[in-house]
Amino acid sequence: MTPVELSRTVLRAVRRAVDEGELSVVVPVRAVLTPPGPGGCGDYSTNIALQLARPAGRPARQVAEILRPHLTRSEGVADVAITGPGFLNIRLGGGAGASLVREIQRQRDAYGHGDILTGQIIPLRIPYDIRAEVVADTLVRIVATQGGRAEVHHIHPSRAEPAGTDLAQGKTAGHDPSRAEPPRTKAPQADPPRPQITTLRPTPAAEDPTPLGPDAARWALLHPASHDRPRISADHLLQRESNPLFRVRYAHARTRALTRNAAALGCTGDPGDVPEDVPGGDELVGALAGYPAVLTQAALHRAPDRLARHLVTTADALLAFQHTVLPLGDEKPSAAHRARLALAEAAGTVLAGGLSLLGISAPDYL
């Protein structure tokens, strides 16, 4: 079951609870699924009970108790646990990893893209600063993955623009209010909603990052949170484990190397279940499953650093998992090896797609 399918399953559980009179709420359009947080368990976690608590007039944990049996009876769901104030932690039945890999194989670079911002225009106001420029450029691509369109506008250095600028008001050139037509008897139509302006003022870098080269410079500006000052140093160029950018790009290159080496053995990837005791396997499946939610949050919160940090998490899981992919010694390729190879290749697809959104190259050899 893919995250999209599981989201629909959660919403069907809400619908059943409403139809049976257990809850009196409007069924949401979507249910957000993320990897379980601290204290959580299973494959996915959802805050749908917390979201419905207020409209239902019940405590979130009580809403979770109502939804739990409906979810447990759903096909593909092995168990549901309630943690914290009302988080539903879902453990899937067999085939979860295989379904996820098939979904990534099918969507390729479009994996993780959504429609939560469809039709929305996101005006971004930025100062004339290199970090703000890079963040805005990256957000244009990230917002587009969720169906929106980001437009970048610069703040004039000699004056601060008020919140109610022409950008928000959508004034039309040549319009004269004194020549307005007299009011008509028909009911007035509501004005279209104005785009909500986002002013981006990330903490500037203390020095020019361009000597690092385009990839390392972008990473140095995008990886820290907006309120943190970027660290501009040659450490971003080092090919060693302490460099997060190197680990992400190296992990991508390793997935390509695994594909080449497997081809030499006559082995190709075929989605299948990876046993829980395989090092890094569960972590890698969780990171890949959480990628769509990270993209959504990066777009909604205008925070490309969330994507950068998630790529590091995915890379670290892949690097722990890679040693289990190919046969060792005289061992012949088996279905287990093909399933692990397919999972590693799916990780490579996600790493390459994420780096591309950040404007950073993903070399096949490193």
> Strands across the major sheet, in which order?
1-2-4-3
* Tally of individual helices: 11
Strand content: 5-15%
Give the helix proportion (percent range): 40-55%
**N- and C-termini, Cα separation:** 34 Å
- Give the ordered list of helices and strands: HEEHHEEHEHEHEHHHHH
The whole-angstrom Rg is 24 Å
Key words describing this protein structure:
366 residues, 4-stranded antiparallel β-sheet, 9% strand
Strand and helix layout:
Blueprint (H helix, E strand, L loop, with lengths): L2 H17 L13 E2 L9 E3 L1 H9 L3 H13 L4 E7 L3 E6 L3 H12 L13 E6 L3 H16 L3 E6 L11 H4 L28 E2 L14 H9 L21 H21 L16 H20 L3 H18 L13 H23 L9
Parallel strand pairs: 5-6, 5-7
Antiparallel strand pairs: 1-2, 2-4, 3-4
Structural commentary:
This protein is α/β, with parallel strands linked by helices. It has eleven helices and seven strands. The strands form two sheets. Strands 1-2-4-3 form a four-stranded antiparallel sheet. The model is unreliable at 160-187 (pLDDT under 50). The longest helix is centred in the C-terminal third of the chain and has 23 residues, at 335-357.
